[in-house]
Amino acid sequence: MDLRGFLKALARRWPTVVVCLVLTVGAALAVTSLSAPVYEARTQIFVATRAGDDTAQLNQGQSFSQARVQSYAEIVTTRQVTTPVVRQLGLHTTPEELASRITAVAPLNTVLINITVRDTVPRRAARIANAVAQRFGSVIEQLETPKQQAGTAQSGNRGPKDEAAPASPVSLGITQDAITPTDPVSPHPLLNLAAGVLGGLLLGAGLVALRETLDTTFKTGEALGEFTALPNLGAIPYDKDTPKQPLVSADGHSKRAEAFRKLRTNLQFSRVDDPPKIIAVTSSMPGEGKTNTAVNLALSLAEAGISTCLVDGDLRRPCVAPAFGLLQDAGLTSVLIGQAGIEDVMQQVAGGLSVLTSGAVPPNPTELLASARMEKVLRELADTYETVIIDTAPLLPVADTVGLASLAEGALLVVRAGKTNRDQVRTAGESLQRVGVRILGTVFSMARVPKTGHYGSYGYGRHGELPLPRAAAPGKEAATPATTPVVGEG
What we know:
It is built from 17 helices and 12 strands. It is an alpha/beta fold. It folds into 3 domains: 3-35 and 187-214, no CATH class; 39-145 and 167-176, Alpha-Beta Plaits (2-Layer Sandwich); 221-447, Rossmann fold. Helix 2 runs antiparallel to helix 7. The longest helix is centred in the middle third of the chain and has 26 residues, at 189-214. It starts with a helix and ends in a 43-residue tail after the last strand. InterPro entries: AAA_dom, Bact_polysacc_biosynth/exp, LPS_length_determ_N, P-loop_NTPase, Wzc-like_C.
């Protein structure tokens, strides 16, 4: 998936990104509000050597302090420091837990040690920091004090007065006492909010990318055409009012009406040298719009002056009769079992379309549709009408359409945008090809279309008519004919 496709996917699945953003920002705000504020108190210790006034001794002592100060910083969090501090301040904690809240850092090439203590109570943080600094200085001086040799005190050559006890070569002084902090160092509301926003965007983008990778449905007619290597004869836009108004009118200005006119035109030009008369309209699975496509395609052909018959070949879930409000009890099955002739059950609808409904639902639809009698009925219809459109059952759930489609001269495969996946389309196409059915092309149904104006925004008034001049002389007719056909409508 390239960058352009990814951006389109983000735009199409923006609710996913919004949900992730809301969740992560809400989590960040919850963490901020539930977290106890933490305060930080700092103190600083200076490490000096006990040297004389000689410059060389001073320089040597400075180098000595810098060499050892890094080791001193590691001793701040030891039990020798923390245990006495816990007892001294009466803290309700363990030396180890206190050590986890203490940080000691010795800046490079300095003799300074910065001690930081964190606590939820600001005054207690300052008290702990000062106590740690005091105790730390005592521990270091004890560690650095040389131990007296055991035989020194018993030497017989000494005078009556003993020599002075050895002292520590270093001394630690507090250069900065800890003061009670006023502002907490955590939580960070703005930082947490920024992290929530960034995390939500990354999570949303990741979920969109994952869904696009796992989603094998078709989003555009171009993608469908590339996958099937078949011409995409039309893209029928999605309309939420379709269940209430399944039929479109030829003089309508809606995008669906224009889409079916384009489908009619593309179908007429797809097989100029060998135009099929019997066309089966099918799909992989139910709910992909095959019946709606068959009904409106037949209406569009009839309203263009083409003698057309629509046959309801879905004998399991017939939908043609309800779409037109016709009688369904007598129809195709009545003809197949010899109870009536074709002309006896044929019904007419507005626009000059002839409709042969399914009739009573039979117990053996697969055998009836693949019978020699069915083939004879289709031939009789083909001799009477210029085009016969058959609404069939879905290919994958049942075997009815495979036998019926083999009797047709061509088939249209309806694919629903965002629902029919690649495996279903591939299996449906292979099913038709195995019985020698010529697939005329695909129809991309319920497609998303840009939110632009209606067709007819190119200077046309009613479809198929050029607008009259704004001002015409009284008593004179307009020079432009009122029924000039649109180019390509046929």
